[in-house]
Write a sequence for this structure.
């Protein structure tokens, strides 16, 4: 069975700005493919407004209708989607199923050291450039000196795999210079080894008491108040009576940024295969999802404990896909955001971008920031710690800060 490489991913752009773009993917199947594709779409700042998934366990056919920002690099998006599809290589004219899969080589990690004069919104501007250049931030350490200088250390991975070349480094420098201007004093990029990146991750026994299960409650808040920033009614039903070979999962919930990604990553972590799925958006807020699934052994989910575990996890992940909290650090305020990490080691994209954008919109400066990974409640989380510099002006109410960050992360602005 063969298929032309150029037909694996087809993007049909909308002719009108208010219409969605259709992305069709036709390729060999694998468990977690939907999660990987949704993550790429989310990284490009696009939202999925409708979706259909169908597979026989060997070959899949997926259609996503997406909407998003102007200036999307559709050719680059197509390339990234092709790279995620099994057996797809840009050097092949025709691909076949099955094909031998080789474990991917771990990507090289680089340290970008940015030094400059501090100003409001500087960190977000730098983060924006890195995201536009597909430089994925793995870790970050940001500090401000008493004389108003900033030293930002970004541990990054180049999605284009070219940062080892001087041309790519120069291109990064010039893009940063164009946005930051005279605020930039220096920018150095060098490859680092695993022993350096390991030092950027704090061991669990050094986690301050604030970053615990108590801070980021992992339980469902069933008694949330209507109209609250965290109000997000979620219904998850499992039915084994409608299909002789599949378990039907029906989900109704409020739409948010990365909704389909959150569903797909949860099923991927549970090693569950989607045979057929449909995602529709009703109006501007409510989404309905029907998924016909099987376990890794190809059988229905009939064990009541497995059913309860799956429904509880889906409800929790869709109700609170991220955790946001504000804590006191003496006279200062620290913003904490926790993002669950997939079992494969990948975290949600663009979280740091959204955090810095929300604070920039509130005119709140960032004194220091760190990203690290910790085990909380038996799971690995990517924890963003941002120490706020509220300056000499009137303080922004803490409830407003948390609300603004949460709404931007959820895409409710």
């Amino acid at each position: 069975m063969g298929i032309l490489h150029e037909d694996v991913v087809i993007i049909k752009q909308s002719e009108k700005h208010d219409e969605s773009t259709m992305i069709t993917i036709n390729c060999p199947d694998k468990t977690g493919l939907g999660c990987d594709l949704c993550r790429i779409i989310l990284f490009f700042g696009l939202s999925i407004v409708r979706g259909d998934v169908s597979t026989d366990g060997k070959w899949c056919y997926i259609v996503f209708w997406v909407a998003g920002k102007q200036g999307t690099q559709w050719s680059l998006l197509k390339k990234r989607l092709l790279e995620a599809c099994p057996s797809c290589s840009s050097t092949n004219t025709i691909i076949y199923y099955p094909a031998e899969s080789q474990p991917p080589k771990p990507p090289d990690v680089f340290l970008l050291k940015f030094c400059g004069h501090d100003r409001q919104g500087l960190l977000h501007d730098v983060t924006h450039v890195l995201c536009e250049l597909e430089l994925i931030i793995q870790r970050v350490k940001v500090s401000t000196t008493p004389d108003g200088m900033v030293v930002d250390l970004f541990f990054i991975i180049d999605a284009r795999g070219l940062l080892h070349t001087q041309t790519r480094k120069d291109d990064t420098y010039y893009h940063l210079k164009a946005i930051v201007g005279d605020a930039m004093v220096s920018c150095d990029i060098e490859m680092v080894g695993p022993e350096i990146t390991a030092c950027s991750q704090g061991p669990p026994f050094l986690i301050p008491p604030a970053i615990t299960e108590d801070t980021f409650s992992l339980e469902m808040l069933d008694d949330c108040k209507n109209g609250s920033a965290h109000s997000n009614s979620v219904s998850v039903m499992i039915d084994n009576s409608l299909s002789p070979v599949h378990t039907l999962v029906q989900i109704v919930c409020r739409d948010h940024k990365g909704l389909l990604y959150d569903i797909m990553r949860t099923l991927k972590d549970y090693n569950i295969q989607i045979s057929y799925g449909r995602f529709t958006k009703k109006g501007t807020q409510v989404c309905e999802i029907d998924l016909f699934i099987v376990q890794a052994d190809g059988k229905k989910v009939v064990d009541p404990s497995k059913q309860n575990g799956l429904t509880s996890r889906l409800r929790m992940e869709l109700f609170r896909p991220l955790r946001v909290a504000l804590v006191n650090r003496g006279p200062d305020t620290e913003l904490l955001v926790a993002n669950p990490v997939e079992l494969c080691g990948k975290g949600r994209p663009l979280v740091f971008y959204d955090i810095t954008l929300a604070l920039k919109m509130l005119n709140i400066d960032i004194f220091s920031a760190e990203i690290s990974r910790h085990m909380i409640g038996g799971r690995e989380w990517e924890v963003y710690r941002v120490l706020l510099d509220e300056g000499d002006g009137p303080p922004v109410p803490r409830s407003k800060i948390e609300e603004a960050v949460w709404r931007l992360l959820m895409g409710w602005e």
